[in-house]
Amino acid sequence: MIIGLDIGTTSLSAVVLDPESGSQAAHRTVANRAGSSPGPGRAELDLAHLYELAVECLAGLVTQADLGPSDIQGIGVTGQQHGVALIGPDASPTGPAITWQDLRVQKPLPGTDRPVLERFIAAAGGREAFRNTGCLPAAGFLGPSLYWLRLQDALPDPPVTACFVPDAVASFLTGATVVCEPTLAGSSGIFDIRANCWDSTLLERLELPAGLFPPIGGAGDIVGGLRRELAEAVGLEPGTPVTVALGDNQASFIGSAPEPGRSLLLNVGTGGQISARTDSFHFIPGLENRPFPGGQYLLIGGGLFGGRSYAYLQGFFQQVGAQLLDVETPSDLYERMTELAATVPAGCDGLQCEPFFSGSRTDPGLRASFSGLSPENFTPAHFARALLEGMADGFFAFFEQMKPVVGEPPLLVGAGNGVRQNRLLARILAGRFEKTLLIPSHAEEAAVGAAVAASVGLGIFGDLETASAALLDYADAVEP
User: Fold this and answer.
1) What contacts 417, CB < 8 A, 6 or more positions away?
2) pLDDT digits over 298-346, tens only?
3) Residue 47: helix, strand or coil by DSSP?
4) Which listed residue, of 136, 167, 282, 318, carries a Cα 20 to 30 Å from 275's Cα?
């Protein structure tokens, strides 16, 4: 058996995967209560608390699965990309982690008139300087966040390592020095994904010390063995191998697509991504090209218009109830919103939504809009449906950008809670792409992907293609 552990934004999830049958023997989720917002636009994480939650999640999983200590052959780790965790020896936090949702670099520092992100790009040599990173830097990325700290002389003194939140968890579990895998490093804005190394030219121009950054490993590499005191706490053997952390986007792709070379993946969670695997590097403005294990790449359209956008609309409806009607509104209106949206015909009687409440990766100042309002479509049901259709339009716009490179992959795969828990959104996506939407048999796709990658690193399977074909399948198919 293999454990896959996903350090997510809102929750930590772990699964036990049986590599003989491909079945999921157990699944455990713990709310991520380590996050905080210490100020406007700030998003931070208490790493010490997060470590406790990781142990809690693993211990609950082992108990639920009724496993003996020696039943687990290894632990694969994945989690939230971007952001930065600054840790000392033995993964000891030197301060709160900055997460991918943090927007501090979009504002100028006191006494200056340019947003820090603009200063970061200019100091690096302009947008062309990031061609080999596969993506243009944005708020929440490791590189700009470190630059923000450096401008304020707030980088901690050595010895300290700048890594990603899942890296810090893997280091904590093992007590080993951080090793960073390209699927995470490539989300930093300062990693050369073609040369597979931290971009020394960018680091020099940005005056970021090269000694801050960890060495680069490969998917499935063993970071170390589970520390004795943690093994006793979770019910596993001391020394159980823990593999290098993967980026959750790539892990979700691995955990969702039995035929990765023929699949287009739509992943709807807090945000949303559309992904397709490619054999070569492509730089397309507005898209990201991320490393994928095996020397391949994922072409990504990443949007901020996933479940968070639907949550904003829910919040508005709740305010109407509380402030206008003076009634206590339910804490969860999603099911009712979707029921209402299902009563509205496709096209929303002319109402259209661009669901960019928090901007986009390339245009942080972009905002949401509803257009085509009429007396007939000015209803809660129409607003809910228009927002869901706006999400689908956002995904399809990304696909049109990547289509010259990826063509028309024959399989459309939908993953994430936004697809699994919202059948109407699944149908809208299938209709927008005019393809059957296949839903993987395993939930918690990122955690499953981490376990699949670990199965290769542990020598159970020879490569990811073989492992994916053996371990993955589809549970459902949603017609257009």
Assistant:
1) 268, 269, 307
2) 999 987 788 889 999 999 999 999 999 999 888 899 999 999 999 999 9
3) helix
4) 167
